[in-house]
Records
---
Amino acid sequence: YTITLVPSGASAAQYESTTVSVSVISSAAPKPAPVLTDAKFSNSGGSLVVSFSSATNQASITDQSFACSQLLTFSGDSAATCSWVNGASVRAVLAPSDVTAEAARTNVASLRTVLATSDVSVGSSLALKANLVTAECAAGQDCSGYSAAAQQSISVAAPDAAVVPVVLLTTPAVVSSCDDIIIDASMSTGSGGRAWSSVVWTISKSDALGAVAVPAVLAALNSRGVNIATPIVLVRGVNIATPIVLERDLFAPSKYTLTLTLTNFLGESSSATVIFAMDENPNLPIVSILGPAERSLTPVDTFNLYTTTTQASCAEKASTISYKWTVLENGAPFTKPSFSATPNKFSLLPYSLIVGSVYTFLFEATASATANTDAITGRSTATVKIVSGAVVVAVVGGNNRQVPTVGQLSLDASPSYDE
């Protein structure tokens, strides 16, 4: 029989029709051997899901988890850990190439967070080993006549919704021309559990002619290859463990635009851009609000913004620093004060912020004037959007209980709350 699914209705154009063939056999006939039909990456890229055409005997493997090499052949199979999801599909959790098969089997949970360096990729070959898998045998049936599946191969497919990189790129907004520039992309996520397939930098500086390329800076950034796990320090000849040295003329006062594009092994890409400037004043405070520049919270969350403030290595000791916070609620002044005792931290109690509102927090650190220099301010901003929280249902006594058939039943859900 041929069965065709044809979508209809107002949204039919969003779907495709599909056809499957179904063979009906006698209940007395042996079931045919299952066929390997699909091998696909999970959306995170950390595992594979391998599917069969019908329920199997699970290759007579009774262990909850086992080395994938017992059943399958693919790059890194001996260190990958397999487990049956159901009778017709098995999940293979990929492991780093330097992890032994035994270590992989005994520490599956932690391996989910370890960077996987298996060579298996979209389009790689995955094979089922011969004479292991038969059709599922129902209890009480004689399945001795069931034939085992022959060796067969399939190409590994891309996930349905591959993880997309989230590029977090930070630099101080303004840097003194006598100090280092720290470019940090180490908090970026979405690599799919492997090294980035591609790391592409672009940088330009502004002058009277507009945006001008900065090839020396670009070369220094590219010298790191795909390793962005630690911050990059661009220095002026300072002797550090692994310096990236820029020519002195690049540190003339100017505004720089830096863009980073990351691509994971599943082919998904994303970019982020930062703009920073260099200033001749040696007392310039280098200010940063820790964490992403944009974030979302629910009203129930206790709100804390932490900051760091440092001064350039050539700062004058006579200059002192003062701090100031400015907060806007949907563009208008926000008057609730921080309850933090320290001026470089902003804290609010739960339910201080309103759902649907967008708050802009500006943190300023001002270095006082000296006999040689004017006062100068370093700034950093963070944008916070307040989103609806969950409605949490709480019933006194728990959600499941045993009660007598006689007498009064009291249900109290008063502890329920709206986040």
Note: The chain is about 5% helix and 35% strand.
---
Amino acid sequence: DVYKRQGFGGAKFGFDSFANYGSTEISDSDLPYGRVIQDPAAAVDENLKKFTANLTKLKTLVPLVGTNKDNHELRDQIGKLSKETNSLAIATRNLLQSGFRAEGAGDRADVKKKLNKLMKDFQTNLSTFEEITQNYKQREIKFALPPRPPK
């Protein structure tokens, strides 16, 4: 089976913007852990906690760009954290898809309700991530650093 997904994140970090690109196809082999998860809702909930923690860190780090604490290491840290958050977004999207496809999930109102709530929470966090990414890109352009000194 082939399913649709959107890309996430920002071009600065080498991944597609969620809002600006069309869907791409993924197969079951692209799902986290290479298979459908037994309890996708629990896995999504765990990913959302990590995602939220990463957003909190990014909200702290991005405003430092352009201050006296700005340096290459800070920007590397922001880039690494953004890539990790992007990977979590993709994994979470895949988990949500597998949850909605899970046997009987569409028939059980309680499971469907929980998955819909998780999807809404995920979309809210994703919007926040996109705002942070845009803010970072603007600050990065406005406050360009000199080239990294040779080692």
Note: The CA atoms of residues 5 and 49 lie 21 Å apart.
